[in-house]
Amino acid sequence: MPKLNEHYQNLKESYLFSEIAHRVAAYKDAHPDQKIIRLGIGDVTLPLTPLALKGLHEGVDAMASPDTFKGYGPEQGYQFLREAIAGYYARNGVTVDAGDIFISDGAKSDTGNISELFSQDNVILIPDPVYPVYVDSNIMGGKQITYLPGNAGNRFLPMPDPSLHADIIYLCSPNNPTGAVYSRQQLTEWVDYALREQAVILFDGAYEAFITDPDLPRSIYAIPGARQCAIEFGSLSKTAGFTGTRCGYTVVPKELVFPTSGGGELSLHAMWNRRQSTKFNGTSYIVQKGAAAVFTEEGMAQCQDHIRYYQENARMIADTLSRKNILFFGGVHSPYIWFRCPDGMESWEFFDYLLHQAQVVGTPGAGFGENGKNYFRLTSFGDHDSTREAMERLERLL
Ligand code: MLT
Questions:
Q1: Which residue from 149, 150, 316, 329 has the fewest beta carbons nearer than 10 Å?
Q2: Ligand 1 centroid to residue 327 C-alpha, Å
Q3: Average confidence (pLDDT) over 138-163
Q4: 15 pLDDT exceeds 90?
């Protein structure tokens, strides 16, 4: 009889977005004529940009001829894409070595899989509220988590407690779900703390392209010393509309070398390379061609047009909440708006209320952790008309 990984028993019964999809489907079945507006999961609605499509088409065409056909590719990703990403970092004033970049099918897989590199006896700091993948992947591995509370008092930007030791620290900025963004000064404090504690920061930068203020860091590597203490995750999902196309990347600097219990040392770069070569066969060539087009100057300019479109939705949502005097965070350098549920409601209660009374779907803050239980997240990834309509419904309801 197999012995099962019983740590799975410690997970919530279902993944947050599966639970939401399930509740919405049940409501839809019971009310087939009602028009539901979905501002729940952060899934994009605009099609891919012309240059991304051109890159994808070139990739497909290459598969049609024996001279250009591609079979298995490098597990780390094609050099042309690793260099395109390093070039994008450079245009944003950050130096990243193309050889430190690993291409993947998205930041969700990488932020989940990375925990395999760390043993069970680490002090793991994870903010609460947080993207559930960081928590669930550690629970699956039977690891203990120390939560870093985010709340209105710290504007959902928890800072290190110098009296507490940590080995692994998860940070996400711009933050999912709260939309809060760490300043340069705040990230410098985190990097200094990590260096002092010899900790590793796992920095999720999936939403960096939404930052419009040049003073806000778009990468942990904008902070001196970060190459000695941080791994960074990037994604094309929200930047370039690749939620369905799937492409992300992880930067693991070769500087990240730590002692082993036996007196030797191990490099996180070498370990991740070993892990990926064993368990991952690379992102498809076609997708990588599309991704490389995204990282050109013109490709990114087209993505920024899409991001501005979504930012207009965020502004509509923020205006509605402001008019209703509801406390909210995010929505400026982020596609997410995070607000306090009205009338002291708890977030699942508000989820059902909004779905049943206004046919609008959002994401209950409780799904992101204990500190989210009185908060609610809306995304700006809808189209203008449905976002406007959702806000009209919200305005009437609240
Ligand atoms: C979200 O809604 O939080 C994200 O879309 C989920 C994800 O990126 O996996």
A1: 149
A2: 23
A3: 97
A4: no
pLDDT above 70 covers what percent of the chain?
Answer: 100
Measured in Å, residue 182 CA sits from the centre of ligand 1 at: 20
Beta partners for 103? 249
80 and 292 in contact (C-beta within 8 Å)?
yes
Residue 314 has phi, psi (to 5 degrees) of -60, -40
**How many angstroms does the Cα of residue 42 sit away from the middle of ligand 1?**
5
- 239 CB within 6 A, ligand 1: no
R_g over Cα of the chain? 21
Q: Would you say 194 and 224 are in contact if contact means Cβ atoms under 8 Å apart? A: no
Instruction: Answer for the pair 347, 373: CB distance below 8 angstroms, yes or no.
Output: yes
- Residue 112, φ and ψ in degrees, nearest 5: -75, -45
- Distance, CA 25 to ligand 1 centroid (Å)? 19
Closest CA to 238 of 320, 131, 376: 131
Ligand 1 atom 4: the closest Cα is on which residue? 42
Supply the mean pLDDT for the chain. Answer: 97
SS3 240: helix
Token representation of residue 291: 């991704």
Whole-number pLDDT of residue 217: 98
Closest residue to atom 6 of ligand 1, CA basis: 42
Sign of CA dihedral 108, 112, 113, 114: positive
The answer, yes or no, to whether residue 317 has pLDDT greater than 90, is yes
pTM confidence score? 0.97
What confidence tens digit (pLDDT) does each residue in 174-199 have?
Answer: 999 999 999 999 999 999 999 999 99
If you take atom 9 of ligand 1, which residue's CA is the nearest one? 108
Bridge partner list, 340: 375
